[in-house]
Amino acid sequence: KTIGELSHCVYNSLAYSYKKAIDELEDITKKRCAAVCIVGGGSRNDYLNGLTAKHCGRAVTAGPDEGAAAGNIGVQIMSADKSMSYKAFKSLINTSFNIKEIKR
């Protein structure tokens, strides 16, 4: 009836959709996802990230909010500097951007 109720419905629906997709991936791969990683602009939405942690029953890491740009830079760095591993690049991202962790 209100914009708040509509928003609540939309956000819960999105969070449930994430849960459903993760459940399907786990069924296919037979592996459990330890956390949900959200990048891009949506990573700034604390309300949705909290609902996602709640519905999925696991922690959510949110950020970087410019995930596509950061990923592109990472691919270029690793291509130019063969000594940089994915693990090292991930560590660089974690120290260069504000990455939030939302507990379930």
Total helical elements: 4
Distance separating the two termini: 29 Å
Structural class: mainly alpha
In percent, how helical is the residue content? 55-70%
Order of helices and strands: HEHEHHE
Number of strands: 3
Strand content: 5-15%
Q: In this structure, how is the largest beta sheet organized?
A: 3 strands, mixed
Radius of gyration: 16 Å
Strand order of the largest sheet: 1-2-3
Tertiary shape? globular
Mean pLDDT across the residues is 92
Low-confidence spans:
none
Structural commentary:
The mean pLDDT is 92. The chain has helices at residues 3-29, 46-56, 67-80, 86-96, and strands spanning 35-38, 59-62, 100-102. Strand 1 (35-38), helix 2 and strand 2 (59-62) form a beta-alpha-beta unit. Helix content is 61%, strand content 11%. The protein has 104 residues and is mainly alpha-helical. It is built from four helices and three strands. A three-stranded mixed sheet has the order 1-2-3, covered by helices on one side.
Provide the fold topology.
Blueprint: H1 3-29, E1 35-38, H2 46-56, E2 59-62, H3 67-80, H4 86-96, E3 100-102
Parallel strand pairs: 1-2
Antiparallel strand pairs: 2-3
Helix pairs in contact: 1-2
Brief characterization of the structure:
The chain has helices at 3-29, 46-56, 67-80, 86-96; strands spanning 35-38, 59-62, 100-102. The protein is mainly alpha-helical.
Using brief descriptors, characterize the structure shown.
104 residues; mainly alpha; three-stranded mixed β-sheet; 4 helices
